[in-house]
Amino acid sequence: MTSTIEPVPDRIDQQQLAQQLVEAARAEGVELVGPGGLLAGLTKTVLETALEAEMSEHLGYEPHDPAGRNGQNSRNGTRSKTVLTEIGPVEIEVPRDRDASFAPVIVRKRQRRLDGIDEIVLSLTARGLTTGEVAAHFEEVYGAKVSKDTISRITDKVVEEMTEWQNRPLDPVYPVIFIDAIHVKVRDGQVTNRPFYVVIGVTVDGRRDVLGIWAGVGGEGAKYWLAVLTEIKNRGTADVCIAVCDGLTGLGDAITTVWPATVVQTCILHLIRNTFRYASRRDWEAMAKDLRPVYTASTEAAAQARYDEFAARWCGQYPAIGTLWTRAWTEFVPFLDYDVEIRRVICSTNAIESLNTRYRRAVRARGHFPTEQAALKCLYLVTRSLDPTGKGKARWSMRWKPALNAFAITFEGRIVASNT
């Protein structure tokens, strides 16, 4: 006798089956979603079928098989259980065995929600929703009541993951790292604005990777920055070619202490934006036109000449701008020595600005945070939303090969191209 094996339905067969189910449901007046809807019924059937298959594997025989009459462990009816799914609450029948040794996997003991629900909660939290707002969302959209405590427990689960992410190994060398800050309101006796620092590294294959997030402390200086950068070094980063940052107290000295060969470069875009802060908006367009020849100059001497012209026109009216550029000049001029491709990498902060926009959106939605840990958790969840695996691969591609060649020549012997 020849046995035949039924082929696995392909995509078209699955679409046809789905269409037939939808048409049958509509013909019978059955809703697609909601309690008692088609999707809830299908979910119930799939889960119960999977649980029965797990029980068969656990006992070693199928339902109604005579092998179950041997006096050993056997099926012992079912118990009802309601689980929360992406389509709302679904009541299922969970099989039991006589000696209570069955430990299902697809819906674990005491599990009241499927794993997809946790991801929805984390996604909503990353967008800045409070626990109360997330609970209201579930009741409104899914018709399911989820307590604030449950939502807090779900988000607390990422703290261990966040700690692992913050301590993961890093690349041995980064051509460029960017150090930026986001200010967050945290209640510490009273609500205060606290800086949280984000470090993004450009890898040798041209991708941008969030290396970590650190909470700032009052009056942070060289000692604070030395601890942060030493942590990055201890995670495997032996060399950084260029560190782009603002003139934060003690940061430049800490960078050259940890990586003596690193060039500390002031962030050009931040310098330009800070320039505009001291000027009336009506002068911004003319000021931007006069400032461009300064940071696009081919040499330091040319930049100095263009800046003198800029200062003669604007610094009398806005003296704080002159003070700003005088203080930043030493860390600005290294930029002028770079190849145009390296300049493009340093100035191309789209990825950073995109990330900061997401951070600020989430922070504004929350208003303030009860603790530093709560703020860190929210910022991490935003980062995680770019990288749901939590493996530190929240990265952005960029035009890279010309820049890689420029880095390899400028920092000879320090950049080793990846084979990937």
TrEMBL record:
The protein's organism comes out as Pseudonocardia kongjuensis
For this protein, the parts annotated as crossing the membrane are none
Pfam families named in the record:
Transposase_mut
The job of this chain, per UniProt, is described as:
Required for the transposition of the insertion element.
Asked if the record carries the keyword DNA-binding, the reply is: yes
- Asked whether the keyword DNA-binding is assigned, the reply is yes
Quote the InterPro entries the UniProt record gives: Transposase_mutator
Composition bias, Polar residues:
70-80
Family classification: Belongs to the transposase mutator family.
Q: Which UniProt keywords apply?
A: DNA recombination, DNA-binding, Transposable element, Transposition
According to the record, the residues making up region (Disordered) are 60-80
Protein name as it appears in the record: Mutator family transposase
